[in-house]
From TrEMBL:
Keywords: Ion transport, Membrane, Mitochondrion, Mitochondrion outer membrane, Porin, Transmembrane, Transmembrane beta strand, Transport. PANTHER family: GH26960P-RELATED, VOLTAGE-DEPENDENT ANION-SELECTIVE CHANNEL. The keyword Ion transport applies. It comes from the Eukaryota. It comes from Parasitella parasitica. One of its GO terms (molecular function) is voltage-gated monoatomic anion channel activity. Belongs to the eukaryotic mitochondrial porin family. The keyword Nucleotide-binding does not apply. InterPro entries: Porin_dom_sf, Porin_Euk, Porin_Euk/Tom40. Pfam families: Porin_3 (PF01459). This is Mitochondrial outer membrane protein porin. It is found in: Mitochondrion outer membrane.
Length: 296
């Protein structure tokens, strides 16, 4: 991928307004994704000729030896903006999702998410409504059985983003939580500030694409109801070639994260991860992990 193409792609992303949970996403992804520590994971994705997608996930925890997994099937009718997704987990959870996008109105997406645990007759259902326009992105969610209603909205102009989220309990008649965020996104960098947990937790993050091969990010967070200490984490991603990259991060608590991702061939990817507690090098406080992804 050329540098010119990459910058053009980033410029196109700037014109698209982020959802509230995606403010600061570039920094969050760089610091959290591609670190498969603590277990071995296998993910297989296949797509049939009629467009039906199958995905199988399996993960073994290195400490407990417990293996969990799920099987997901997804069908998309792109012409009518309709998508069906169903999943069955090894804990016997049955999950389903129906999506309807740009059908009733342009920029409107409706989602119905359901979950059923037959062994204890536990059920859940949520309805999401997402409305997107060039300068506004709003999501409203209704938890049907818990009667919780939440809404978040982001307004943007020329790279500047301002967002807020409020959750309201209908039965109690009380506001359950409220959060806020501001950010700025340019072609080569982005910054964001979040105030969550009823404006008691604060976090500031940045993302910088130094060049076509190197990316850097950092995050500082503080809990006003806890200690006066600030948690700090910095990381970087280096592209080795068209098929491989390495990532590293470290926190002020001394935990070092390392990761290596290699595309072995088209549709086959392997990802190694390690978490090393540099303050406890002689103790059994370190984690290793491995992830395989197969896709046709």
């Amino acid at each position: 991928m050329s540098a010119n193409f990459t910058l053009a792609h980033l410029n196109n992303r700037i014109r698209l307004l982020f959802a509230f949970n995606d403010i600061g996403k570039s920094a969050k992804d760089l610091l959290s994704k591609d670190y498969p520590v603590g277990g071995v994971k296998l993910e297989v994705k296949t797509t049939a000729a009629n467009g039906v997608t199958f995905k199988v996930n399996g993960q073994r925890d290195n400490k407990t030896g417990i293996i969990v997994g799920d099987l997901e099937t997804k069908y998309a009718d792109k012409k009518n903006g309709l998508t069906f997704t169903e999943a069955w987990t090894t804990s016997n959870h049955l999950n389903g999702k129906v999506e309807l996008e740009n059908n009733l109105a342009k920029g409107l997406k409706l989602e119905l998410l359901t979950s059923l645990l037959p062994s204890v007759n536990e059920k859940a259902a949520k309805i999401n409504a997402t409305y997107k326009k060039p300068n506004v992105h709003t999501i409203a969610t209704l938890d049907v059985f818990k009667t919780n209603f939440s809404v978040n909205s982001v307004f943007g102009q020329q790279g500047f983003l301002v967002g807020a989220e409020v959750a309201y309990n209908v039965l109690d008649g009380k506001i359950g939580r409220y959060n806020a965020a501001v950010g700025y996104t340019a072609a080569e960098y982005g910054v964001a500030v979040h105030a969550t947990n009823n404006l008691s937790n604060y976090a500031a993050s940045y993302y910088h694409r130094v060049n076509s091969d190197l990316e850097a990010s950092g995050k500082a967070s503080w809990d006003s109801k806890g200690s006066n200490a600030v948690a700090l984490e910095v990381g970087a991603k280096l592209k080795l070639d068209a098929s491989a990259f390495v990532k590293a991060k470290i926190s002020n608590s001394g935990v070092l994260g390392l990761a290596y991702t290699q595309a072995l061939r088209p549709g086959v990817k392997v990802n190694f991860g390690a978490s090393v507690d540099t303050s406890r090098l002689n103790e059994n406080a370190h984690k290793l992990g491995l992830s395989f992804t197969l896709e046709n």
